[in-house]
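Per reviewer request, we include the raw input and output of the structure prediction for the construct analysed in the revised manuscript.
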Amino acid sequence: MPRSLISQPTSSKMDPLIWSRLPEELLDHILCFLPLKNIFNLRSTCKRFKNLISSPSFISRYYSVFPSSSSSPFSSFLLLSHPYFDTHFLLYDSVLGTWRELPLPFGPSVPSSSLRTTSNGLLCFSLPYSSSFLVCNLLCKSSRVVEFPSFPLSFELLTLVSTHLGFKIFIASSGSDCAFLYESWSKSWRQFRGFGRILIDGYHQPGVCRNDCLYFTASDPFSVVCFDMEGGEWSSPVGELPRELTFVRLVSDGEGRLCMIGGIGRNGISRCLKLWELATGTSEENWVEMETLPDMMYRKFVSVCYHNYEHVYCFWHRGLICIGCYTWPEILYYKVARRTWHWLPKCPSLPENWSCGFRWFSFIPELSPSV
């Protein structure tokens, strides 16, 4: 057959005018099929693409195309805040087992040490000199300044909760009977009474969220109390706690699971560390023991905190229950699925002579919610 009769492959290119005539909704739907890395690269091409990542309609459409990405299509990190690194955070990739740095875009006015709490991909900083909080989504490069509900204000139990609508901030006014709840969609604070009657004097950790309720621990005697963020009502107690507790901390996966970490002993001295989960399948809520920290690891834990349990804090991170201490650079964590305990070694970037100020957080970058 003559060569001239053989059909040659032709390169077909879409007319650029077709793209310019596409409805925006159809163009957004097409862009949803791109890898997120490519979508971020598009931000430098035009103003519309720059604002695309922070568009609620685009985020909702993207997650509808890739429902498996609804948890987060990015790596998840354990974030370490320390005064030695004032302009950036240290991130530990809990999947790859690698360290990296996360620079802060705010400059010296918002040091890394002012970070107070996180919720998924949102970070909340306290700005006492301006009597406000700064909530930001570093992935979307969006932020919002939230002024304190009153001036002056001394607060405790700062808790940040991210939702599909935005975020909530809960604080309790120190030395008074008031609690305040901020909702980002209404841009306003709500005030609630009765806080002082529920949580009496003593150490209290920030709340943990479960089913739109915040759970707190109270001492003397130890108990777990609940605050309904929708109705603004307190309930107490939640389940009967084990005996001989020396300290108690709560963690939650943000959905239905609520776990408790506590020391068992006498006269304020723990002899072991246990883990419980709140069982809700029966008519009454009960704390069911899950695990006990192995003896050798417990001895190291005691040598870290010196029985000063106010330095101990806990949080949930992607199937891990993490236990940290402000005076120790390592972190103890429990793999819920495998039921194993591990120590995360000290970050190699930390100087040898630092022995305090170590604050760990869970950081799961997400497109939603945008601030």
